[in-house]
Amino acid sequence: MKKPTHKWAFRPRFRANAFGWKASKLASQRLKEALTEIKAVARVDPLSAADGAIVLMEKIWPALAHVDSSSGALGNAVSKTVHELIAVVVAAPADETRRERWLEQMWMAVEEDGVDYLWEVSERWGELCGTPERASVAADEFLPLLRLSWQERGGYFRGTPACLGCLLVAERYEELLALIGTAPYRSVAVLVIHFGTSKSPK
Fold first, then answer.
1. Are 139 and 130 contacting, i.e. CB atoms less than 8 angstroms apart?
2. What's 198's DSSP letter?
3. Based on CB atoms within 10 Å of each CB, which residue in 7, 65, 67, 169 is the most buried?
4. How many helical (H) and strand (E) elements, i.e. helices and strands, does the chain have?
5. Are 41 and 48 a contacting pair, CB within 8 Å?
6. How does residue 188 score in pLDDT terms, banded at 50, 70 and 90?
7. At 201, phi and psi to the nearest 5?
8. In which band, very low, low, confident or very high, does the pLDDT at 152 lie, cut at 50, 70 and 90?
9. Is the CA virtual torsion 141, 147, 150, 155 positive or negative?
10. Residue pair 159/122 in contact by the 8 Å Cβ criterion
11. Nearest to 191 by CA among 152, 148, 146, 145
12. Is the separation of the CB atoms in 115 and 62 below 8 Å?
């Protein structure tokens, strides 16, 4: 498999700790610029664009970790950017090997995300899997840890939205409803409805 050859202009701008405490406005502008670059490439090379989208996902938290986001402006900018990046990845006509690599990269980014900037990546994991069959495999990978966290009544598992979304995409509806019945909190049902009806950030 060929390695990506596109040299992304945004990449050095999103090095670790690139933005200081008061750099919310600058960081938002850099996100906009990066997204514009990725979408321009997507028009001619969707696979390279998806590679770039994932690179940006990986860099968001390390680059923005020290920025004051209390106003909410940066969080909104990140959410809008991530929403568009997901669309680029979902649309890319990747083969199974390449998509599997993307999934590994994205999940590592989700796990390392200190403030959940990539929340929508987890919620739309089933779509990012590319096929109902791969979503079903992912659901089976998540299920043991999800069930364990619920047995602990409120134990946190970062993969909960991803697991529920994968079951939905895989059309394992009866199993999904049965699983919801074991949840320690009923807001899980609201999450599932959200997966099925809403794809855009607020």
1. no
2. -
3. 169
4. 10, 0
5. yes
6. low
7. -70, 155
8. confident
9. negative
10. yes
11. 146
12. no
